[in-house]
Amino acid sequence: MPYRHAHYYVGFVLLVILTGFWASYFAPIGSVPLAFHVHAVTAMTWLGFLIVQHVSIHRRMNALHRQVGLASFALFPLLIVGLTMIINFSADRLAANEGEFIAYAGPSFAIGMVIAIVAYLTLFYLALKNRRNVKLHAGYMLATPLILFESPFSRVMGDYLPWMNVIGSEGPQAIFDTIAISDTLATIFALALYFRDRKNGAPWLVASAFMMTQAVVMWVTPGSAAVREIFRAYAAVPDAVTLSVAALLGLAACWFGWKAAPSRPRRPEMPAAA
């Protein structure tokens, strides 16, 4: 089986999440808005599923692997809903004119989440489509933690490793420096995996494309009046509509990805006894 030690990599991402979001989420968890709970629970459960899936298949616990795989069909739409709830929360803050920071940075954060949603939908669809190919299936699934790695690691960088910000922007733009650097580091990791096995490295190229797009777009859009007005228009759309669309997109990725996989070849029938 490929990626024998991948559970350590996923565990490292969980550790980065705990460290990066300790001050802003875990420590004040009782006063955190619902959107962040849904996002945190679904995202961390997704990582837990990946660890169980990886360990179970390597230990030939195929039944557990299939059960968790089926459970992911229920979790994945909720994961997309959680990401959309964060976008909606930021949109509501912008519409309420909460301050200069949300006006400057909020739309860029939202665009980053939109890119992450498209990346998750694409990677999970391709993982299901290629489930007959073990290396491609595993690669697409294991690429998903990289998509939001920038979010916790950029906070780790800002709080504990400021020397890593080699861009050196001032004010709120420094936040987007750390996001761009985090995405770049994750892309370097993904490309290293691609070059180890280029024949089956497509998942890491796909993830790299999304991460570098996210890095560039999030760095150049803060303060954009045009983007801010688009975000204000989005804020007027009822949450029931946006969250329903998010859930349907998640379900569609599951359904169409499953259907796109080639059928198993039929075993030749044994000739009847004379």
From TrEMBL:
Q: Does the keyword DNA damage apply?
A: no
Q: State whether keyword Transmembrane applies.
A: yes
Arranged from A to Z, the UniProt key words for this protein are: Membrane, Transmembrane, Transmembrane helix
The highest taxon in the source lineage is: Bacteria
TM ranges are 7-28, 34-56, 68-89, 101-126, 138-154, 174-195, 202-220, 240-258
Q: What name is this protein filed under?
A: Uncharacterized protein
Q: Which species is this record about?
A: Tsuneonella dongtanensis
Q: What is the lineage of its organism?
A: Bacteria, Pseudomonadati, Pseudomonadota, Alphaproteobacteria, Sphingomonadales
